[in-house]
Amino acid sequence: MVGCRVPLHGIGNRHGAQREELDMSAILAVNAVDGRQSAFEVITAIFSNGDALAQPQQLVEALGNLSLVWAVVFLIVGVLCLFNGYRYYKATTVILALLIGAFSGYALGKQIGAQWIVAGCLAALLATLCFPLMKYAVAVLGGLTGAYIGANVWSACAQLFAEPGQVASNAEHYWIGALIGLIVLGMLAFIVFKLSVIVFTSISGSSIAVMGFLALLLQLPSFSDGVASGVKAHAAVIPILVIVPAVIGLILQGTSSHGAKDVGAAA
């Protein structure tokens, strides 16, 4: 009888280990789904305000909910777009249009309880339209980038230079800066195509990379408190963190493409 108990005990351990493995697989699967949902929730929450970069309190809270995996993905994608966006501008344009469609569709789809269906459909539609309408897609992305820059610069400057009692009032008019940026960079795409591509890929890449980097630091206990307090110190901090890498990327992309064939002629 003693000899029979040993293998039965071993079988019980094996079944227990198998159950634990299945439970762990289920947990990982649930976490993966939750990560995807939180990423969409975070991005839609961030860009629900036109001057997202100039609202550090809300931005830090949102990025703190972004998973570590998504933070790394954002950082890598942003760096690639920042320094190589012009070289692969067609792929970059399609990817950015797809992301804009996905996140916009998710936000719109929540109103009818079908966010994933609307997100997928709108992402596929915008990405497909980029192929026959590449120049216009670049113009649209350039205009959106200009609106994004204008809104955040206006809001940051309003909070930086305005009188204490007029800060909120002036910052609420960020749409004026957005309109100016939309017109300027939207028209720039038809006049100087190459520069427009470099500008919107640099700004987009810098924004994505900075958000990913901040989200990554906020996940680390030894850095989270210091990063959060530093970023929240003033509304101009995050715009500066985005503008500086964007200018560096713009210079490097312009230098590396010097003497190359203009992409506008090939488009």
Label this structure with key terms.
single chain, 267 residues, 82% helix, 12 helices, mainly alpha
Task: Give a verbal description of the structure.
The protein is mainly α and 267 residues long. The protein is 82% helix and 0% strand. It has helices spanning 2-46, 56-63, 68-84, 89-109, 115-129, 134-161, 167-171, 174-191, 193-218, 221-231, 237-256, 263-266. The longest helix has 45 residues, at 2-46. It is globular, with a radius of gyration of 23 Å. The relative contact order is 0.13.
The largest sheet, given as strand count, sense and whether it forms a barrel, is:
none
Q: Give the % helix.
A: over 70%
Q: What Rg is obtained from the alpha carbons, in whole angstroms?
A: 23 Å
Unreliable residue runs:
1-37, 261-267
Structural class: mainly alpha
Instruction: Give the integer mean of the pLDDT values.
Output: 78
Percentage of residues in strands: under 5%
Order of helices and strands: HHHHHHHHHHHH
Number of continuous helical runs:
12
Taken from the alpha-carbon principal axes, the silhouette is globular
**Strands, count:** 0
- End-to-end Cα distance, whole Å, is 81 Å
Write the layout of secondary structure elements.
Elements: H1 2-46, H2 56-63, H3 68-84, H4 89-109, H5 115-129, H6 134-161, H7 167-171, H8 174-191, H9 193-218, H10 221-231, H11 237-256, H12 263-266
Short summary:
The protein is an all-alpha fold and about 270 residues long.
